[in-house]
Amino acid sequence: MAVSRVVMPKLSEAMETGKLIKWLKGEGDRVNGGDILAEVETDKADVEMEAFGAGVLRKVLLQPGEQAPVGTLIAVIAEPDEDISAVLAAAPSTPATAAAVLPRSAPAVAPRPVAPAPRPVAPAPAPQPVAAVAAASRGRVKASPLAKKIAAQSGVDLRLIQGSGPGGRIVRRDVEAAATAAPAAAPARAATPGVGYEDRPLTPMRAIIARQMPLSKAPVPHFYVTSEIAMDRAWDLREALNALEGQPKISVNDLIVRACALALLEHPGVNASFRGESIRVHHRAHLGIAVALDEGLITPVLRDADGKSLAQIAVESRELAERARHRKLRATELSGATFSISNLGMLDVDEFSAIINPPEGAILAVGSVRRIPVVVGDGLGVGRRMRVTLSCDHRVMDGAMGARFLQSVKRLLEEPLRLLV
Amino acid sequence: MAVMTYREALNLALREEMHRDPRVFVIGEEVGLYQGAYKVTQGLLEEFGPERIVDTPIAESGFTGIGIGAAMVGLRPVVEMMTFNFALLALDQIVNSAAKMNYMSGGQYNIPIVIRGPGGPAAQLAAQHSQSMETYFYHVPGLKVVRPSTPADAKGLLKAAIRDDNPVIFIESETLYALKGEVPDDPDFVIPLGQGIVRREGTDVTVVAYMGMLYRALEAAEELAVEGISVEIVDPRTLRPMDTELILASVRKTHRAVVVEAGAGFAGMGSEIAACITEQGFDELDAPVERVTGESAPMPYARNLEKAKTPSKEKIVAAIRRVCYANGNGS
Question: Touching check for B228 and chain A: CB below 8 Å?
Fold first, then answer.
């Protein structure tokens, strides 16, 4: 049995560093492949990390609360009598050298690929020079006495907070922000009274959104196609379905997910990614469904949506959203979407435009279903209408293709029995 | 209430106390015929005669010693230092006799003496006449040290000092003598020694300041109020005994503190107050206590250099921003 190196896994597309939340196995514990070894916090979720090799967890190199770049050696699994000194000696003393010392003799342990990646795995990014961050998170936590007191009272773990004071000192506002953001936290406290502003440190999620969005918007030439959909029949269908005993409740969003999945099969050109020299057309529709959280936005992926019934979509998307809110998504549920839907209908929005989440080729922004006056024959009546806007990557598709896709979505929702067959 | 100058308030306090208690007398250089170098004793010679308003030679150690001796046998002298810088000449009398006599005599002798006069930086008085002399005295057990910032405080605290049975160092300021303010008429208006006051209410940061620095701190507070930073200003009034409870109560509210003093910072008043806040209010602090002090150098005569050595409103504003982690703190 070879010595197994446990490295910080790359658990999401954008992940560059991960923070160890806790080890679920201790040094000296026997580990079998598939055992949950640790919990790691990525920019989007807390993810369980499985052991790859079997043996004894001989050495742990990263302590809870510390961060390490993807690919850094964080633990060693081996039989008790095996010599691990060579592996430990090769462990990088600074993250900058991590790439240079990946030895071929000992297999690097990556997280198990659970589902095929939607695109070839991009070359792992060169380890970032994050020595400063890592150093700051090592050793004692610097916090003001008041911050420590408030943290103790509100149950906030100071090791998980980024301080906004000089030299990264955690001060009162940081703890209060963390206490407010944490799902199980005490009621939100008022901001520093009297001061007209406050500088809130970026949460990991906000930081990743801030970093990714310019990369999503600027290089991708967006164009937008808007359409109004009569939702009267879809509304009636939903009410009829929800009146059925023993069936899961169907939301308007579930109908839209189903309609999009079917329309994507019809228009594979929309279910596509720009790849520089080629356009990858996906044969299956993995739908990202944006979920708003207090500290940002997360888009869990409903896989193979085209093959799922309305009831399946309803149950699975509800469960995904629930786990997203508790940051309990698995890594595979956070990446690999081929198309996304962002629905602000519940917030009384007429219409809006969304930013494409690369490498996806399009995203549908959904407004509220409204009761408005509509022309019926030669007279006026009241109808339910919903406006949707498709943002398209012009490198992948043109206006007519986007419009035809929307026509299909419109037809599916306006003749909603098509969603059932 | 009457509006009067700080100088007139001190004069009124002396007159009232001299009427109230025949044991009170004034001794010092130019206090009689010349009516006081800064006119604090104006009119007293005419009113009380040369037995109670005593002009002396230029001999601080001598007339301070006379005052201490008079106090030992039951009088209540008010010794005027033309400026407090000259009290250095009387330091042995003050430190070794006035401060220790009660202790060394086993309580047989009280020394109810007030030694008063102006101190601190003023306007181009240069190295020897601009010193913040309180630091030389509050270190000494047995001395009380008062620094009154307003006309009303000047009156109420001087009267309390005269009535106190212990030696009191009472340091005024050239820059405040002409300051006008409302002063209570009541001849028994007395401000107890050791009682500070909140000069301005605020919620974000506590600034401790007195005398000229108090007024700069108030200007800084006005400027920061525009930015939404609410500054509370505490004036200790008496430096020893210090009203630490008032300062700590304010810090418990604001969680941040800045101490301003005109003198050089090393082992200064700011160090003492910062230590007190840290020892007794550590868990309340969201930032280290900042000090804004004079530079560690003799006071230059040149106006621009004098300004550079003395704490400015800008330095106070910057320190407040730092403890509030407000913009530009390099965090």
Answer: yes
